[in-house]
Amino acid sequence: FICLSVLQMSYSRYRSRSRSVDSSDVENPGNNLFVTGLSSRLTDRDLEKHFSTEGEVIDASIVLDPWTRESRGFGFVTMATLKEAERCIKYLDRSVLEGRVITVEKVLPKDC
């Protein structure tokens, strides 16, 4: 499991500043997933398509290096429900995407 407070710093740096709600203030209901092992060729849309096999994807984003704009090899996926997120962990953890084995974990609350 990954601690949200560690990831929130790097994740928030690469997200749009124009969002009306600060994501650090929103409590994680358990449907937010941390995905690692991503190919540098992968797009947000590819990630969304892979996870949509297990339910409705609310958001899928790959974290980019701010200077090179290349993938850092990890990202976040928000599923519509906790049940769908758990299904993603069960069926997509250690699955192959673009020739790479990915890991899928729940993002832990900040106070971990």
Automatic annotation (TrEMBL):
Q: Which Pfam families match?
A: RRM_1 (PF00076)
What keywords appear on the UniProt entry? RNA-binding
Gene3D superfamilies registered for this protein in UniProt: 3.30.70.330
Which part of the chain is the RRM domain? Answer: 31-109
Q: Which PROSITE patterns match?
A: RRM (PS50102)
* Stored InterPro entries: Nucleotide-bd_a/b_plait_sf, RBD_domain_sf, RBM, RRM_dom
Extract the GO molecular function terms from the UniProt entry.
RNA binding
What's the protein called, per UniProt? RRM domain-containing protein
Question: Organism, per UniProt?
Answer: Aegilops tauschii subsp. strangulata
